């Protein structure tokens, strides 16, 4: 019997192994992705790394199946969760999760223990539960999660991986993924987005060197290879370890194709073992034993003998539930060697075995996607058609909407090739198209969704199906809003199909989205749309209609034709819990509809608040109602939406203290709902803007520095850089300000949706040029923007730019035109307008009005600048006492802000006028606090919380930072204090008296 040679020694890869170990030891790193071509030794590297870990370390493996990209959602993570379930037991797992957990869809044992998952469980809740299980498990034992073959991962699995990378904060948890570098576009995009993440390391496995090939051959043979052999095998294998193993027995006399090398080692297999190996190759790696047994024509004993031979010859490796090929290239070689008719026949045997198993009540059934794959490859199109429809329903059930689109597209592709297609699904082709549109809308598949909506609308008779037409327009509007197009026309069209006297969630959602579109474009109709949406929501909350099929409550698919299963291969939770689950769904349906209506009411009130921005009291009343409705909805996402728009209004209105309170509420909700990564960027920007406006510049700079270490969208990064530029410019560092502005500019580009920040950039550039002593150039920069046609849509930013131009005193005509047409909707707008008029008039009374405006808003820098101009105006009017008082106030404010240029201007003006300002204090500029024991003020904050026993996630929620950032701070504290643990760090802090510092 000839076995495929296996090198027991670990050859080469010393640098990669050391990098893996360094990453594991670095507390700031929790994820490593290992890339390399097939056969290069990625799995061998990970296996060697595993042997270097402690005996207590638990390793949970998840492998992506070869048809995974268009197959079963979350396959690798289901395997990981089942490993932890076996290790911990269902009771221990249940204690970590809420009643009726989302994970019950994956784990039938959990469904039986804690109840079936809620029907409307969202994806973030599922992801949060998985994160909780992984983190809590790793608090008791080190946990290594290995995800193999990520190039075959389905979209849902990649989204979950991205979520985990962004949110892991607790325990001894380490993720390792392997992938081929060029096989998956979605994976390439994910890796590109992770390159800047300090918690992620990317490794690439290079081919073995000539010397390393020699060491591998020596290990395989147990002796040094003959002269010349190393060079020949190195050239033929290209340094790929698997090919070195295959070439070793006969480096001179082997076939030309490397795949044939692998087949050479199968020649001594028994006929039965060879047939099982071929069936396993068609089934895909890994393959369940139950599937092989059902599809094979061998008796149980003969099958066991054949499998034992394949395992002994190192062609297959045993797993918990079956087998996998030792290397996928072996599987590929076996599969490619089959004749087309042989492949089709084996796919047919597998599909029939899968279909039979799915029909057995109570059996551990397979996912429909697996059946669809084999039936399609077997040419059994009706079976593939129905299975793809069922697979789409299963994907929708776990919010894997991109996977759902793949399955629905297969249904559409087979529609004309399957007899009685509509009868088989109890749905017509237009139903399937509509389901594609809904799935694309929910999964963010923009181009495919728009194309499907175009086709569906062309096939829809709005006179017969007005609600379907309205829903399709609604979805297309959302998809177009995610692209370069706009959705307002679709929303208006959707409204025409729905009677105004029949309130439905669909009509309310359309009105709310229309209000959102119009409020940000400055349209006055936004308030009417938002008010109408509120009325619909309130009517629904009082009497929700039972036949409402709006996108909030309706599934995009009808009940699937075959028995539903879950993606983990187990019984769906509804089957496990039986009638109890059905009764729960009936009793909770009204509650879900009421919560959906409450969510609509919350968003509609928020848009009403934005539309009423010029009437602050009215606006805040609407936001109070929005908060109440969000509480009733019980949906953290809805609360975050309300907070996001509320903070935007508060900051633009100058209510900065209130804005900070709302921001902190939003960040806390983001932590609690695992939405920090998606919600934090804009909230952090608004926080930095509020701190900047309030003159709390040291806090602002700390926040900016900390936030820029996070993975932020380009727009958020640019906005923070502009805040930084304003502060350092006011403190006299023109070069740093110019550098921040220059860094922000390419991040903003010419995108229409970034317009408000583009105006802010031009304001900063105007101020930089003016500070550099070139007021004419400053005026030119600002005037080019102030004369733009779209300025009226962004009045708050435009007023700040107008005031910057006014101070140059170089563009009076442009300024006059802007003052005449810019609307004043907030107290901040009014203060800027007052300053502009004061610049033009130069009268002390006008500057006194500007001083009063900025004082009322609590904005010290703008107040100090107005006081400086007041001093100048009073001197011109001959009132030296008033000038002295104003200039002394400037010094006091400038000292508090560390705004040295402003203080210097006040002193120079006083010196020229012969005014003594000595009693103003001349305090040293307020600098950012010095470190204590080498710890920054933020690290002292973190240390105090560490001393209370707070976890990283608790620290993050308390300090409104990400959990990753909290972990980085803790690591730095341990290093600076020379502590080996959090407990030791707390003891050192108490000994040194650090807990009361700061």
Short description:
This protein has 998 residues and is mostly helical. The chain has 49 helices and eight strands. Helices cover 65% and strands 4% of the residues.
Q: Would you spell out the secondary-structure blueprint of this structure?
A:
Blueprint: H1 14-25, E1 31-35, H2 42-51, E2 58-63, H3 75-88, H4 90-95, H5 108-114, H6 123-138, E3 143-148, H7 155-167, E4 173-179, H8 185-194, E5 200-204, H9 210-221, H10 229-237, H11 241-247, H12 258-264, H13 271-283, E6 287-288, H14 289-295, H15 300-312, E7 316-318, E8 322-325, H16 328-337, H17 340-359, H18 368-377, H19 381-397, H20 401-414, H21 421-425, H22 429-443, H23 446-459, H24 466-481, H25 488-496, H26 505-519, H27 526-542, H28 573-577, H29 579-611, H30 616-633, H31 636-653, H32 656-672, H33 676-694, H34 697-707, H35 714-730, H36 734-748, H37 755-771, H38 775-786, H39 795-808, H40 812-821, H41 827-841, H42 844-857, H43 860-877, H44 880-897, H45 900-913, H46 937-947, H47 952-959, H48 963-977, H49 982-992
Parallel strand pairs: 1-4, 1-5, 2-3, 3-4
Antiparallel strand pairs: 6-8, 7-8
Helix pairs in contact: 1-2, 9-10, 10-11, 12-16, 13-15, 13-16, 13-17, 14-17, 17-18, 18-19, 19-20, 20-22, 22-23, 22-24, 23-24, 24-25, 25-26, 26-27, 26-29, 27-29, 29-30, 29-31, 30-31, 31-32, 31-33, 32-33, 32-47, 33-34, 33-35, 34-35, 35-36, 35-37, 36-37, 37-38, 37-39, 38-39, 39-41, 41-42, 42-43, 43-44, ...
């Amino acid at each position: 019997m000839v076995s495929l040679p296996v090198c027991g020694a670990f050859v080469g890869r010393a640098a990669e192994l050391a990098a893996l170990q360094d990453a594991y030891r670095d507390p700031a790193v929790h994820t490593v992705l290992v890339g390399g071509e097939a056969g290069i030794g990625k799995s061998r590297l990970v296996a060697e790394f595993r042997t270097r870990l402690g005996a207590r370390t638990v390793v949970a493996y998840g492998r992506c199946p070869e048809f995974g990209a268009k197959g079963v959602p979350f396959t690798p993570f289901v395997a990981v969760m089942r490993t932890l379930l076996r290790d911990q037991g269902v009771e221990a797992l249940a204690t970590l999760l809420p009643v009726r957990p989302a994970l019950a869809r994956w784990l039938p044992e959990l469904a039986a223990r804690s109840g079936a998952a809620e029907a409307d469980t969202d994806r973030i809740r599922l992801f949060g539960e998985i994160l909780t299980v992984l983190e809590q498990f790793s608090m008791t034992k080190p946990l290594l999660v290995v995800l193999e073959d990520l190039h075959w991962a389905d979209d849902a699995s990649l989204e979950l991986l991205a979520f985990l990378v962004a949110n892991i904060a607790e325990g001894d948890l380490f993720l390792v993924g392997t992938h081929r570098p060029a096989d998956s576009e979605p994976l390439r995009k994910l890796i590109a987005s992770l390159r800047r993440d300090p918690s992620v390391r990317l490794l690439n496995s290079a081919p073995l060197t000539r010397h390393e090939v020699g060491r591998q051959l020596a290990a395989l043979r147990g002796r040094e290879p003959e002269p010349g052999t190393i060079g020949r095998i190195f050239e033929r294998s290209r340094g790929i370890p698997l090919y070195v193993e295959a070439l070793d027995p006969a480096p001179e006399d082997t076939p030309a194709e490397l795949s044939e090398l692998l087949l050479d080692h199968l020649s001594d297999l028994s006929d039965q073992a060879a047939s099982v190996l071929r069936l396993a190759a068609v089934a895909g790696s890994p393959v369940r034993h139950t599937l092989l047994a059902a599809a094979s024509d061998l008796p149980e004993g003969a099958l066991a003998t054949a499998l034992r031979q394949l395992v002994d010859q190192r062609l297959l490796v045993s797993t918990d539930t079956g087998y996998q090929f030792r290397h996928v290239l072996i599987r590929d070689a076996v599969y490619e060697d089959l004749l087309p008719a042989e492949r089709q026949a084996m796919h047919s045997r597998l599909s029939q075995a899968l279909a039979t198993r799915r029909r057995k009540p109570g059996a551990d059934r397979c996912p429909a996607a697996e059946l669809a794959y084999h039936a399609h490859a077997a040419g059994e199109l009706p079976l593939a058609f129905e299975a793809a429809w069922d697979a789409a329903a299963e994907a929708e059930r776990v919010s894997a909407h991109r996977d759902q689109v793949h399955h629905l597209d297969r249904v559409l592709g087979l529609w004309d090739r399957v007899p009685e297609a509509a009868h088989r699904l109890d749905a017509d082709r237009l139903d399937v198209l509509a389901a594609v549109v809904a799935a694309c809308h929910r999964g963010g598949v923009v181009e495919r969704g728009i194309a499907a909506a175009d086709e569906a609308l062309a096939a829809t008779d709005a006179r017969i199906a007005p609600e379907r037409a309205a829903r399709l327009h609604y979805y297309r509007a959302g998809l177009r809003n995610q692209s370069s197009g706009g959705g307002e026309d679709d929303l208006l069209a959707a409204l025409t199909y729905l009677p105004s006297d029949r309130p439905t969630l669909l009509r309310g959602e359309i009105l709310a989205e229309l209000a959102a579109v119009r409020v940000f474009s400055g349209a006055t109709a936004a308030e009417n749309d938002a008010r109408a949406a509120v009325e619909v929501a309130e009517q629904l909350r009082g009497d929700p209609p039972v036949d409402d099929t709006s996108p909030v409550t309706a599934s995009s698919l009808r009940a699937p034709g075959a028995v539903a299963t879950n993606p983990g291969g187990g019984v769906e939770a509804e089957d496990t819990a039986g009638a109890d689950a059905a009764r729960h769904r009936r009793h909770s349906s009204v509650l879900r509809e009421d919560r959906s209506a409450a969510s609509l009411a919350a968003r509609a009130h928020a848009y009403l608040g934005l539309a009423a921005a010029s009437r602050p009291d009215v606006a805040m009343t609407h936001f109070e109602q929005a908060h109440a409705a969000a509480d009733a909805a019980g949906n953290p996402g809805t609360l975050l939406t309300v907070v996001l728009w509320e903070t935007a209004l508060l900051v633009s209105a100058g209510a900065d203290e209130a804005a900070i309170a709302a921001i902190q509420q939003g960040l806390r909700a983001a932590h609690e709902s695992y939405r920090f990564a998606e919600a934090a960027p804009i909230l952090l920007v608004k926080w930095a803007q509020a701190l900047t406006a309030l003159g709390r510049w040291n806090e602002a700079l700390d926040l900016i520095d900390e936030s820029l270490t996070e993975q932020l969208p380009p727009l958020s990064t640019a906005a923070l850089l502009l805040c930084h530029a304003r502060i350092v410019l006011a403190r006299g560092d023109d070069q740093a300000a110019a550098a921040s502005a220059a860094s922000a500019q390419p991040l903003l580009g010419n995108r229409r949706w970034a317009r408000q920040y583009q105006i802010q950039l031009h304001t900063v550039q105007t101020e930089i040029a003016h500070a550099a002593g070139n007021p004419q150039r400053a005026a030119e920069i600002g005037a080019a923007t102030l004369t733009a046609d779209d300025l009226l849509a962004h009045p708050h930013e435009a007023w700040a730019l107008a005031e910057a131009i006014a101070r140059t005193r170089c563009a009076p005509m442009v300024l006059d035109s802007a003052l005449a047409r810019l609307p004043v909707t907030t107290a901040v707008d009014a203060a800027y307008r007052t300053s502009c008029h004061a610049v033009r008039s130069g009268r002390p009374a006008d500057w006194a009005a500007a001083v009063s405006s900025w004082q009322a808003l609590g904005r010290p820098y703008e107040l100090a600048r107005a006081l400086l101009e007041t001093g100048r105006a009073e001197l011109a009017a001959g009132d030296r006492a008033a000038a002295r008082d104003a200039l002394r106030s400037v010094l006091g404010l400038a000292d508090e802000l560390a705004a040295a240029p402003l203080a210097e201007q006040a002193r120079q003006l006083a010196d020229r006028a012969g005014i003594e300002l000595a009693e103003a204090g001349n305090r040293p500029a307020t600098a950012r606090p010095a470190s204590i024991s080498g710890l920054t003020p933020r690290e002292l904050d973190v240390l105090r919380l560490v001393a209370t026993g707070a976890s990283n996630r608790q620290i993050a929620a308390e300090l409104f930072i990400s959990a990753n950032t909290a972990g980085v701070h803790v690591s730095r504290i341990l290093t600076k204090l020379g502590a080996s643990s959090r407990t030791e760090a707390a003891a050192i802090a108490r000994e040194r008296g650090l807990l009361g510092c700061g």
